[in-house]
Specification:
single chain; 14 strands; 24 helices; four-stranded antiparallel sheet; 580 residues; alpha/beta; Rossmann fold; 45% helix; 3 domains; elongated
């Protein structure tokens, strides 16, 4: 668990500690309004190098090189808490975590033009190229010849299948790389003696290949299964060949692979490294095809010893396609780089501008990464930085995403107000609360008995007393106090807007119809249809007066609303629309 993240002297942050308690292997949404410091947090992680923290001057707080940056993670493992510090001299984080930061690759570019004695510049947006593989390994192939292998076993060699195509498969190479350690053990004296004895037994057999394999099923198979490397190789070969392959074929093929490995380890590893690269290249090509970007000539190319993807000008590829494609490719890179350490993945606002389809796509790749890391018995912390209300992500396919608010808001919903919202649909009060409390109606009601029976604040059973409360909370907000109830403010704003529109309707019958109309937007539309001039800002404020009317169990409902209420532009819009 990452208990807290502390940052010093990075961009707009002089010093700040985020108490989070982040759980591993779950997507974590770190929510804060624009300008709060999410990109500063991402910059701090991006500055981590293997031995120290290297932050460019322009990324330092106030651009002052004398202000030394520092990143501290407080973690809890095996019941013990410890602090991992990275600064300009050391990086203790690197000993525990591999850190990756994914951001948008869109960059502004200025092109200068000389025209006589004048210099002009034009601005454009470009997408920086993505380096998929920094160093392409040299071409290499396995030193394997089935005829040579069979000759090693005399006339019984006919029992061995030809592994030429299997060993040449790029997909197969990754599995072999993971078994180097086990294959090294085959060189041990005990296992070598066992293999020598089995080879002698095989060489003594006569008959057809099928007859020798049938003999080996009862005689050699148990002995081959007892050698861990051969057993694991046989499992890998079975997976590659499919379920129809006889086990004895897989075991004898596993023996062939082990002997080939021990015959020339360097050549074997060089071949696997190159084939693994080909597999990696193919996987990146698959990702690009999946996002339909090939028609724009977006594809991996080998250049100067690296595998890179270059993009067309930003105007020629959609934002969602660009961001989701880059994101998927970068996650594929991370997936293939999983080490013995846990992983921290910082995603800086990549999600905030994607449509629903691309949101689903990038979630798929995060889910795949989490699964892959867990298969390696390691942990990953996907930290998704966003300014959006987390309810925007309610359609995420993540089974158990966690939400953390970086900016903790002191203003919070009053417990009595929360109880009222939670019980607003109780049959005894539903019609009263919907019409006389959360919307405007000039006729007061007194349902204190019902409120008392439901355990609600009894005095609020008098709707006049309830509206006095919301007005008092509005006054706190208007005077820029820091302990107002944001939900009560939202309610006051909605009721005041509806009252203003109601008062502007002249016809009594239309006034009555306005009150009987459900939902504020429908009321506004009704008023407009009947000649009332409703400013567009009234509609825009729907994000305030509608969002503040719903609560959710075990969720910080206040922070996302407060972040909007405290936005200076929105504050101005509210005050201008309804007055003080």
């Amino acid at each position: 668990m990452i208990k807290s993240i502390a940052i010093e002297n990075v961009r707009g942050i002089a010093s700040c500690t985020f108490a989070l308690d982040i759980i591993p292997n779950k997507p974590s949404l770190l929510v804060a309004p624009n300008g709060f410091g999410k990109s500063s947090l991402a910059a701090a992680f991006a500055a981590l190098k293997s031995k120290r923290m290297e932050l460019p001057k322009e990324q330092r707080h106030l651009g002052d090189e004398s202000l030394a940056p520092k990143l501290t993670l407080t973690i809890r493992q095996n019941g013990q808490s410890s602090a991992l510090v990275a600064d300009g001299n050391s990086n203790a984080i690197a000993g525990v975590f591999d850190v990756y930061v994914v951001t948008s690759r869109l960059r502004a570019k200025a092109t200068k033009h000389n025209m006589g004695n004048f210099t002009t510049a034009t601005a454009s947006l470009e997408i920086s190229e993505l380096v998929l593989v920094q160093t392409i390994p040299p071409k290499a192939h396995h030193v394997y010849d089935v005829a040579v292998m069979r000759a090693r076993f005399g006339s019984s060699g006919k029992a061995f299948r030809n592994l030429g195509k299997t060993l040449a498969s790029p997909v197969f190479a990754d599995g072999l790389i993971e078994l180097y350690g086990l294959m090294d053990k085959v060189a041990g004296v005990r296992i070598q003696n066992e293999i020598t004895d089995m080879i002698a037994s095989l060489q003594a057999q006569a008959g057809t290949g099928d007859e020798i394999r049938a003999w080996a099923v009862g005689t050699l198979a148990p002995r081959l299964e007892s050698i861990e490397a051969i057993k694991e190789l046989a499992d890998l070969l079975t997976f590659a060949a499919g379920p129809g392959q006889p086990r004895i074929d897989a075991l004898l093929s596993g023996l062939q692979v082990a002997l080939t490995y021990l015959g020339d380890k360097k050549a074997f590893k060089d071949a696997c490294k190159y084939l693994s690269y080909l597999n990696e290249k193919e996987s990146f090509e698959d990702i690009i095809r999946a996002f339909g970007a090939t028609w724009k000539k977006v594809k991996p190319i080998e250049r100067k010893g690296s595998l890179v993807v270059s993009f067309p000008p930003a105007m020629h590829i959609s934002n969602g396609q660009r961001d989701s494609l880059c994101f998927a490719a970068e996650l594929r890179k991370i997936e293939r780089s999983i080490s013995s350490r846990d992983t921290i993945l910082v995603i800086d606002e990549v999600f905030d501008y994607l449509d629903d389809a691309n949101l689903v796509a990038v979630q798929y790749y995060i889910t795949k990464l989490i699964k892959k890391v867990r298969e390696k018995q390691r942990s990953v912390y996907p930290l998704i930085l966003t300014h959006l209300n987390p309810y925007y992500f309610r359609n995420f396919t993540f089974a158990s995403q966690k939400i953390y608010f970086l900016k903790k808001s002191k203003p919070a919903i009053n417990k009595d107000f929360r109880a009222l919202i939670a019980k607003r649909d109780e049959p005894s009060i539903r019609n009263f609360v919907g019409r006389h409390y959360l919307h405007y109606d000039p006729s007061p009601v007194d349902v204190r008995a019902h409120f008392q029976a439901l355990g609600l604040r009894e005095t609020w059973g008098d709707s006049i007393a309830f509206h006095r409360h919301t007005e008092a909370e509005w006054t706190k907000y208007f005077n820029e106090s820091d302990n107002y109830d944001p939900f009560a403010v939202c309610c006051f704003v909605r009721v005041r807007i509806e009252k203003t529109i109601y008062d502007a309707i002249q016809d009594p019958a239309r006034k009555s119809e306005f009150l009987n109309t459900s939902k504020t937007k429908n009321k506004l539309d009704f008023a407009v249809a009947n000649g009332v001039d409703v400013d567009d800002s009234i509609y825009l404020l729907g994000i305030i007066y509608n969002e503040g009317m719903h609560v959710h169990d075990n969720v910080d409902d206040s922070s996302p609303i407060v972040s909007k209420l405290e936005n200076r532009t929105i504050r101005h819009m509210i005050i201008e629309s309804i007055g003080g």
